[in-house]
Amino acid sequence: MRKCLTMAAAAVLLLAGCSGEQAQPPAKPVYDLPAREVRPDETALHLSPVLNGETEFSVIGLAAGLPSLTGSHTEFEAKGRFVRLRLVVTGKGVSGIVFDTRRQQLLTDSGAVIAVDNQAMTIKRQPDKFELGRGVRVEFDLYFDLPKEAKPLVLRAFGGPTLTDMKNLTGTDIKLG
Q1: Tens-digit pLDDT profile for the chain (177 aa)?
Q2: Using CA atoms, how far apart are residues 112 and 156, in angstroms rounded to an integer?
Q3: Signal peptide position in this chain (predicted)?
């Protein structure tokens, strides 16, 4: 009887091993970040993070068609319409880089390449350049002034120089939806 039970147990184990199912590795632990409400004029974006060199980009929010911006001391009218992107950048390299927010670009449905609007960034007190260290995560807004009829399609993201790409000339395109 004992021999039969041992053989039955061995058969079950053998069949389980042949079922095609592989044991899944345990999930990596993650931080629990609290959910936050999306700003009233913004749409939450649920895009996968994208790497450019050793910088990870997560575009998490989009507000388009803003006619003006209000800062602490002024209201600023758009030449066309402002677009605001909420961006999270994370340093993934072995050392830090100087991250330049003003280097990012927005591509429109007409193929135009729009630079960050420096005056809007200053009025909204968004960062210019900062040290992005290994594992450092920074969240901020980018502002662009697009022609009134233009639609934002792609963020061209530049993470900064790496050991293999000292100039980072090409950037990485992130489709906005």
Answers
A1: 555 545 555 554 455 555 556 777 888 888 888 888 999 999 999 999 999 988 999 999 999 999 999 988 889 999 999 999 999 999 998 888 889 999 999 999 999 999 999 999 999 999 999 999 999 999 999 999 999 999 999 999 999 776 666 677 789 999 998
A2: 12
A3: 1-23
CA 2 to CA 4: how far, in whole Å?
5
Domains of the chain, with CATH numbers?
A: 43-175 (2.60.40.1240)
How buried is residue 78: exposed, middle or buried, by Cβ count under 10 Å (0-12/13-18/19+)?
buried
- In contact, 72 and 101? CB cutoff 8 Å: no
Query: In 3D, which of 106, 90, 1, 87 has the Cα closest to residue 47?
Result: 87
Report the Cα 103 to chain-centroid distance in Å. Answer: 15
Strands (E) across the chain are located at 43-44, 50-52, 55-70, 75-91, 97-100, 105-108, 113-115, 129-132, 137-146, 152-157, 172-175
> Beta-carbon neighbour count of residue 77 at 10 Å?
9
Amino acid at the residue 142? L
Residue 24 in contact with residue 45, Cβ under 8 Å? no
